[in-house]
Write a structure and sequence with these properties.
The protein has 5 helices and 3 strands, in the order H-H-H-H-H-E-E-E. The chain is mostly helical and 166 residues long. Strand 2 and strand 3 form a beta hairpin.
Length: 166
Amino acid sequence: MNITIEFAADVVDRFEELMLKHGISIPQHPQTSADMLPLWQILKYLRSGQQMSFDRQRELFFAGVAVHDLASKVLEVQNNSQFTLLLPHLKMLVEGTVHLTEEPPSPADTYNKLIELYWACLCLGKQIPITLDDPVHPDGNNPDVITLDSARQPAHAYAFTHPSVI
């Protein structure tokens, strides 16, 4: 499947609209200026005819692929009955501390929460029911993503930790 920049930007736009419906707006990180929505920057360059350096082009496209992938995973499960379980993780994006393509600044625990969100989306996308521990106020369920069997009993458990947190 060929994915155009315009299509990818549309996916990210729909992701942003979904987040806004839940009171979530994703800003740039205040310290690093990491942008969760780099596809808009790519389109701006393309439409204006401006030239980008190879390094800048690679940086934006790399980040754009990561954002498109995350947005696609979240949009795929937006109608799942368990979608609301993802909202506390998605709200962490408001902090602007999520880095999809570079090492996160301290604390790296936010990175762990992004991976939990991603894994939960993969499970829900396959119609596998889950339990998901709240990222801010955990109730002590560990691992953080637990898949459930047909009787809604724990089947598999997953924990994700960035090496800098160990």
